[in-house]
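Collaborator request, handled under Task 6.
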Amino acid sequence: MKVHVGAAATAEEAEAIARSLAEHLGVDVDVHVGDATEPAASATAPEPTYPLADDLGPTDRERDLRAEIDDILRGGPEKYRDRLPEQGKLFVRDRLDLWFGGEDGTRGTGDAGSPPESPAGVHFEDGRFAAFDDWHPEAPDGDAYDDGDRIPADGLLTGAAAFEGRDVHFMANDFTVKAGSMAARGVEKFLRMQERALKTGKPVLYLMDSSGGRIDQQSGFFANREGIGKYYYNHSMLSGAVPQICVLYGPCIAGAAYTPVFADFTVMVEGMSAMAIASPRMVRMVTGEEIDMDELGGPRVHAEHSGSADLVARDEEHARELVADLIGFLPDKAGEKPPRSGTKPPKRSPEGIDELIPESPNRPYDVRDLLERIADAESILELKESYGAEIVTAFCRIDGRPVGVVANQPTQRSGAIFPDAAEKAAEFIWTCDAYEIPLLYLCDTPGFMAGSAVEKDAILEKGKKMIYATSSATVPKQTVVVRKAYGAGIYAMGGPAYDPESTLGLPSGEIAIMGPEAAINAVYARKLAAIDDPEERAETEQRLREEYRRDIDVHRMASEVVIDEIVPPSALREELAARFAFYADVEKELPDKKHGTVL
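Structure tokens returned to the collaborator:
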């Protein structure tokens, strides 16, 4: 506020006027004497002080509300909460403290018995009062209330929080409320959270511990348009739009088991997690099979056999650590670049790459050792490690840049591509492409496996999915022919025909329809059989093999410009870093169509 006073006013009078007006009007004041352009005195409005003059404050109405909230935060019946330590798991609100307890969601305490208040990293919670009138003693129908009737928040928590410095939506079941089962009000909260994630473009964390739908209350939420079935519609809409990460803390049965399999990434916890289409009791009724929950759908089943579990954690804290690592490779939403970090030298020296790769194409080595000489130290996160082990799928960083790695594993059946490995690779490639994570293929395979067993297991169908995913991926791709690249293996592994930004070879590399032994047997079997002298036959076979290997050697491939460059093994990391940096913003287009029909 600007005020002018008479030209005769003194500086002291101007100062007194400025101070008085600022205090009385609550605004900043500049006092000018006469026609002066510069103020003779200035005063700022004082900060308001509380309590205000009328001494207003909370009444019993607010105090009652806070008491109701505190009661809701206690969770379900005390007897069920007391059982949680025996089951090795945290009360849901202590779990939220573990996940979101720090100011920026970096780390909470997860201590049992923590005070009934939201962790510092939780921005807000929605629907605390869900189903309040159905159970609370002060509610209209609360006459029959006892501790066993408690269903605070309808057993399902939703809200927004900071996790490792990232804003996320979250959902968490309260296992103390009817075993985390889902009913109408909780379903409504779940759906609203998903729909808000579609609007905000922020990741979603599902902290699942649910026995499925609340069968005795299924009316109004099971088959409705906005019922539990809408979960999976929303999962489908969110898929590839924002990262969805699910952690399982208990037996998730029937409808509850679909959220983890719809999520982009699923973490199971040893000793407590399970998921299955039906409970052991239902399985016994339907099939007569006697089986316990762990054998039916525990972590080992889904990590080794179904491939539904991406990671298996030792305990609750380890689960959080794994997700903290995982989310660091992912953007908030589709169309954004994943976050970069500072570069680190690799754990093992790149100088050892050449010696690591055996001369013979049939001798095994662990491709993880190769990856540790390429990737930044402590940046490798392998997914589905025990499933389809002939291919390694992992996130890592190269010069601080997130990269998705698809690598044949020679220690597992010579790196041949089996059905499970092909399907695992296809899903990983598809996910990397959805979230703008560039791809690195490390090719060392004799190709797709042959035989009646793999044909029955749909090697053609699952191999098709891997080739389709590689063909359709529009993120930057680099392919390295590490050693053998035989048959259709070079197609699935991002070979020259599949639009990689570069196809590189190490001096150990070979590209061919088939390996030397199989080729000699296929082409020259009759000619060799006609040679009676064993010594002559062996010499001829060796000469043919050497001739064949010269034809498929990486130098011939480079000479014919099949590949872009032969790289000294010790320079491979440096070469890849330069190429990923150069092609970081490359744009690719797919044909104008609704979608393909393969996946």
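The cover message to the collaborator said: "The first strand starts at residue 2 and ends at 5. The longest helix spans residues 534-552. Please let us know whether this matches your experimental observations."
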